[in-house]
Amino acid sequence: MSLINEILEFNKNFVENKEYETFNTTRFPSKRIAVLSCMDTRLTELLPAALNFKNGDIKIITNAGAMITHPYGSVMRSMLVAIYELGVREIMVIGHYGCGMKNLDGCELIRKMRAHNIPKENIEAVLADGVDIHKWLDGFEDSEKSVMETVNVIKNHPLIPAEVEVFGFLIDPHTGKLDRLE
Ligand SMILES: [Zn+2]
User: 71 FRET partner, CA 20 to 30 A, in 9, 121, 148, 158?
Assistant: First the structure.
């Protein structure tokens, strides 16, 4: 069932045929922008195309819901590296309409884990570790509010310099239309 062998075969040909040559760029984003967006498959190619982002233009960080669940988690860490190491000066938080994280219930996800034979003790061990697992897995109720909360976490973060500007948006996953949030 796995596609891994197919992927490896494709990759071998890709490298042999030097198909990588059209992708050559540097690790520094030429537009000095970092985007935090959702991992939704509909956005993978649509978002860069709709915003005229070409290969090498931006840093893009994606996760489920374009959310920052912790001010000292991996998203903020990536932002800090993008700013201090890679020259980013503007941050765009781009949520989207019809996001799967809207109204996602942490309890429901835990029920699915249980159905996949994750023992109750494992869930309890996470709680014992001081992680509020339900809250951690919960999505959001209001897309606009969630994006603006994330914008504010970045703006008010003690390690983000004042000259970095942060903006919030929602994108339509069908048309690519971008709405700016205030
Ligand atoms: Zn989404």
Answer: 121
Q: Is the pTM of this model over 0.70?
A: yes
Q: Do 160 and 131 fall into the same domain?
A: no
Instruction: Find the 2 Cα to ligand 1 centroid distance in Å.
Output: 25
46 in a domain, yes or no? yes
Containing H/E element for 38? strand 33-38
Tell me: the pLDDT tens digits for 119-170?
999 999 999 999 899 889 999 999 999 999 999 999 999 999 999 999 999 9
- Which structural domain, as residue segments, surrounds residue 77? 21-99+142-181
Domain match, 92 and 160 both? yes
- Looking at the 3D structure of the chain, how many domains does it have? 2
- Shared domain for 38 and 87, answered yes or no, is yes
The sign of the torsion formed by the CA atoms of 24, 30, 36, 42 equals negative
- In whole angstroms, give the CA distance from residue 103 to residue 125: 25
For the segment 9-18, the average pLDDT, to the nearest whole number, is 98
CB contact at 8 A, 170 and 101: no
Given a cut of 70, whether residue 99 has pLDDT beyond it is yes
CA of 33 to the centre of ligand 1 (A): 20
